[in-house]
Amino acid sequence: MSDLDHRAPHANRGAIRVFLFLLLFNLLPVPWYFFVVAGLAPPVVFLAVGLAGLFSTESGALGFGALVVVLALIGAGICYLLAWLSTAAVVRLRAVRARTAVLAVVLVLGTLAAVRPIYVYGGHSLSSASSLLGFVDLLAELKIPALLAQVYLLLLAGLLVGLLVYQHLATPRSARMLSDTWQRARRACRIMLVSGALAFLALFGWTHRTLLVTKPLAHLGVPAAQYRLARAIMAQPGAEFQGDDS
Questions:
Q1: Checking phi first, is residue 63 left (phi over 0); if not, alpha (psi -120 to 50) or beta?
Q2: What percent of the chain has pLDDT over 70?
Q3: What is the pLDDT of residues 30-77, one digit of tens each?
Q4: Chain centroid offset of residue 216 CA
Q5: Residue 199: its pLDDT value, please?
Q6: What are the CA-CA distances from residue 218 to residues 91, 193, 241 (Å)?
């Protein structure tokens, strides 16, 4: 087999980078400090908690959710940088089997670490420990169904295994066929991301329609908006659109 057969094609590098990013984003603990709560949790947990806050109409939830989402995005950026650097190191291994073995070991060790109680949080001399599985219950308390979190973890496991197999098969001899598959997968991911972003904006606008539309119109003196705002305040006196001048 020639040296070319040992090189990682472009699609292979992309699969390895995505594999490592997903692994880090979902399993790697990152520091977080908010008021008196100091904790370690994967960025994906912060993202879920932040999104739950963004779609809550309770007072203060919007600002809290925005802060946690920003922290999650910072964590995602760190994870991507680490994945990029790790990919550059992994592809230096000339043997395909060696690369796959290293990635498989990283996957197993990361999973074993994540299911152990290594994520600690607390405040005022109180602390407790949880694991990635324990965060399923935490998300359930934040009105994120446990079934949804479990399905996400199952899909994540399938995707990681699929990427591991793909990068192993993406040798230069099969690169042309697999490259077409990789390009189609990338286009599908872009479509899903754009569609998800548009759906997010639509749902966010609908959830906060009273704050974004009704309240400004009420301050402009529109009687119908004033009536709807008053009804909304009566129904949810502690909601985010409640203010001193409401």
A1: alpha
A2: 78
A3: 765 554 454 577 888 888 888 888 888 787 788 888 888 888 898 899
A4: 32
A5: 87
A6: 60, 35, 12
Q: Which residue has the tokens 């070319």?
A: 4
| Contact yes or no for 241/233 (Cβ under 8 A) | yes
Whether the pLDDT of residue 192 is over 90: the answer is no
- Residue 131: which of 146, 119, 149, 144 has the closest Cα? 119
Length reported for the chain: 246
pTM value is 0.76
Residue 179: which residues within 8 A CB-CB, separation 6 or more? 9, 10, 11, 170
Residues 149 and 133 sit within 8 Å (Cβ to Cβ): no
- Enumerate residues 6+ apart whose C-beta is below 8 A from 56: 62, 65, 143, 240
Q: pLDDT tens digits for 171-184?
A: 666 656 666 776 77
For residues 111 and 235, give the distance between their C-alpha atoms in angstroms, rounded to a whole number. Answer: 45
Which tokens sit at 232? 């909304």
Backbone angles phi, psi at 37, to 5 degrees: -100, 115
CA 12-80-204 angle, to 5 degrees, is 115
